[in-house]
Amino acid sequence: MALPLPPGLTPSEVAFLCEMELVTVIPRQRLESLQLLGGTTPALIPPYRNNIPLWLALLLKKQRRANISPPPWLTQNSLQAILDFENEHSSTFSPPPRLPPTSSSTSSISPISPPFLPSSTVDAPADALPYHWLELAEILLEAAPDDFEDADLVRRLCRDLRETRMSKLRAGVDVLEAGGGVQMNGVGGMEVAEGRSFITGVIDGLRKISASKEQARRERESDERENGYPGTQEEDEDML
């Protein structure tokens, strides 16, 4: 008998999907275009930059056939500015990249999700974190640290940014206990995968508590009807 799978995507699965993101590379050797399931990759001709999937860029980097250009948001100044925004706004996350304007024509389909958005290329906005920001930063810092001006500083800023944003997710648990909701605008894929366990645990716990209270109330009302005792006003107010 197979074990039940956990709900949602695991962190390793999210990191695997992140490899579909387009990144910018500077080729060292000429490489003809490749026919892939997702389409044809552009021909790589040194020293011209081009955008290719992350998994292919990592392979070329490992073979020393290309360098990877970090996206603008993965620099010291951009990460520090985003971290300052996160610290100044304790209840909201930094806004995600803006979507391109949709076409008014019904026959055309406007791509609105990675890897169709240039959220991790050199043309990406510098003031917004994309959906796969955390896992992509970890992958690039591990596979291509020499392509950063100061990899250690960027790694430290990413760690501080991750801790700050995760603390906001944990703080939202108190809102759930009070019957409210958590605003998830701008939360990344890896953050959702890592925070799903304790958020869903809190929601399940609140659901069980609510169900037990409702069951106790129904049993109490049933006993009162059987005994001909309607209850007092104070008890009704306590139940409310």
From TrEMBL:
Component of the GINS complex. The lineage of its organism: Eukaryota, Fungi, Dikarya, Ascomycota, Pezizomycotina. Residues 89-111, 210-240 are annotated as: Disordered. InterPro entries: GINS_A, GINS_bundle-like_dom_sf, GINS_Psf2, PSF2_N. The GINS complex plays an essential role in the initiation of DNA replication. Has a role in chromosome segregation. This is DNA replication complex GINS protein PSF2. The keyword Nucleus applies. It is found in: Nucleus. Residues 101-111 have a biased composition (Low complexity). Belongs to the GINS2/PSF2 family.
